[in-house]
Amino acid sequence: MMNELDAMIKKNYEMSKKLNEANDKVYTNILCYIRVSSLDAKEKEEIISDILEMFLRCQAEEKSIDELIGNDYKSFCDSIIESAGENKFSKENIKETLYIIINGIFILLSINFIFDYVPRAIKYRSIVNYKLGVSFLLTTTMILLIAFGIVKYIGKTSFNDNNISDSKKAKILFIIFYVVITVILGLIGYILRTYTLFSANPYVMLAILAVYWIYKLLERFRKEA
């Protein structure tokens, strides 16, 4: 059975399907903006549910969304977030952040195991120890920070989509940023390739990764139940 938060997310998603194209575009921008705020996850879904009900009621009455909330959607969202009392360091936010970090680490560990350890084991035709380098720690930290930054940026600039000039500039800057980061990560990996953080039995690592992915699979089935 899915938990209360999962049920709320699913309900909001199903409700959002009833929006027409114009209202759905506004709703999507508002959704992105609120989702990257520092409100608790449950509080975000409650707010999103209220906004959806407002939008659907307005749509049923054949009124423009601007008549309901004005045309400054960012200010509308900011006023809601402020009234709800945003708290960046709440217990729920810390738990949510740790959950994302742990998932990110395990995903990157899995990629590292498959594309680094397995080729080495095949090359030497023997079961060698799994070595995790210092470069992995640094690149993982950078990747997670960049991922958080990109998500925050997309959410916070969701209302700039209508500005074509700004959108083009953002895409160019993103490409440049991506290339620079890729080069930096490559250099870090090359320079620190000989420094080992720890060495472990590959069967132990495989068991840990297997437990993680089995858990994620069961979690997915639970949410869909």
Automatic annotation (TrEMBL):
Keywords: Membrane, Plasmid, Transmembrane, Transmembrane helix. InterPro entries: UCP029876. The keyword Transmembrane helix applies. Coiled coil: none annotated. The chain crosses the membrane at residues 98-118, 130-151, 172-192, 198-215. Signal peptide: none annotated. Pfam families: DUF1048. PANTHER family: MEMBRANE PROTEIN, MEMBRANE PROTEIN-RELATED. This is Membrane protein. It comes from Clostridium acetobutylicum (strain ATCC 824 / DSM 792 / JCM 1419 / IAM 19013 / LMG 5710 / NBRC 13948 / NRRL B-527 / VKM B-1787 / 2291 / W).
